Description:
With 310 residues, the protein is of the alpha+beta class. Helix content is 38%, strand content 19%. It contains 9 helices and 11 strands. The radius of gyration is 19 Å and the shape is globular. This is Acg family FMN-binding oxidoreductase. InterPro entries: Nitroreductase-like (IPR000415), Nitroreductase/BluB (IPR050627).
Amino acid sequence: MGFPDAGPPAPAVFRDALRAGEQAPSVHNTRPWVFSGGDGSITVSGDVDRGLHVADPGARELVISCGAALYNIRVALRAAGTVPEVTELPDPDRPALLAEVTAAGTAEPSDAELSLYAAIDERRTHRGPFESSLDDTRILADLRAAAAAESAGLRLITDDLLIRSLAGLVNASEYLHRRELDHAEELHHWVRVPGSRLPGGVAADDIPAEESAGEPLFAGRDFGADVQGRREASGTATGTVAILETPADTRSDRLAAGQALERVLLAATANGASAAFHTQPLEEPRLRSFIAEHFCEGAHPQMIMRVGYA
Length: 310
């Protein structure tokens, strides 16, 4: 029995989709997107004023963040029985305009789509070690399939020497960034301390205290040694290490990477898992090229992540 065609979606359907888009993950929770529309159509644009001009001068991570928001919009519309039609990069003369979403009819949502939609409210970015890794082969296969469905790949790094080598690249770039004043100032700007009115950013109490975490295999971001209110880290597991990759590295590929990333994260959330991100070496062109050649067989790495149970 098909989903009944009830005419154009109600404005509330698009308003809910906009709300879902705002809940997407973004680099340092900068939320670098601008949505417009909301009654029959939605446009997703990048907000360069909220970009990371030191860490992300080419706006790669900005586009990925907007892609994650776009995926949430798509899922919210599907959960409401609306089939979204997405036009990516619709106007070459408006490079900030990344996508336009309209309704292309109605269809009953699948159980999988409803599960992904429900996971939007539950998804959280994890920082620090995990209680245990995600080693369920069925779930890992589902995560890889989620990435593939969005024209990306999720490469699992399982060899211990490769894991330690990748961690070394993360750690080296992290500690170099800590010594660069412009990197440190930009990162510290996006810390939301208690009482802050910053619309976005990383809450101080979500940043684990490094001294309580010991010597993690993958170094976390140093948001500033003077940040007050850091939480005590718990857990000892590194988590399952993966690289999200795309066959090419155009703006369209980066937009696809963001949609794939969020689809993977929602699938993980639906299975009780969460993810931690390590973009530090991907912000260094030479290290990103090195990872592409030696870890990704020539594919383009868009995100380094650890997945586990927090």
